[in-house]
């Protein structure tokens, strides 16, 4: 154990953890939205994220920015990122919608038990996993280096780069937008109504099927946006990229209080920070162990997660 390293690099590890945690939080929103309305876990969500990473590479390569390509100017980079977010969000949102129509809706019409939904979601996940693996020959795909990390300022000895700032602020902005949509708009009120009591919501004229479609699409769009940030940060994707990210994002959702949008943010950021502290103390090979041990410890003392508020009880 190297607590001296943690003390010497505390702020640097914190910022790195917040950057990674912001990506976890965006992906976690998909899990928390679906659970908040359906009380079910969409285990195909990790592959929804994975689809977004590949669409990003396709869009950039189609515009002539493949691996090794020189980055354009600032406005060109911002345009490429914005275009990738739109394309990946649409592709991931569309994939999530297909999952809902194929793996969930037929079972809901038949009032299937929860276990059957779980099996169906896992089947959809494996199908997408193997499909993309076959299409890509199970080979990784590289990204152009559109954003070169440059130190913008220093806090307590930690260099803060433009890439870290961009990822954290982008994730916070998207989460804030989703939070406002759910809490302040007519469609958002419909989502909260169905989450709280679907039968009463139906009597009040809320279309449950449309609400469920909406939350799958919204969750997919957030995962698509997260996939772009991941591609920019890591610079590489593969057909199996969604597996660990999906597990970490699900952990973040449970940690913050699954079914709670702000809990997903808190859980994601906290998970990213703690796993980086663990890597600093025990070594990188212990990063994932520390993250999941923390989840177990928190749930032992607070089974509903840190915030524990369901989507149906979200503040109006």
From TrEMBL:
Subcellular locations according to the entry: Cell membrane
Segments crossing the lipid bilayer: 20-41, 48-69, 75-99, 111-135, 155-182, 211-230, 236-256, 263-283, 289-308
A Pfam family the protein falls into: BPD_transp_2
Keywords (A to Z) from UniProt: Amino-acid transport, Cell inner membrane, Cell membrane, Membrane, Transmembrane, Transmembrane helix, Transport
Membrane topology (UniProt): Multi-pass membrane protein
Alphabetical list of InterPro entries matching this protein: ABC_transp_permease, BCAA_transport_permease
Entry annotated with the keyword Transcription regulation: no
Family: Belongs to the binding-protein-dependent transport system permease family. LivHM subfamily.
Name this polypeptide is given: Branched-chain amino acid ABC transporter permease
Species assigned in the record: Paractinoplanes deccanensis
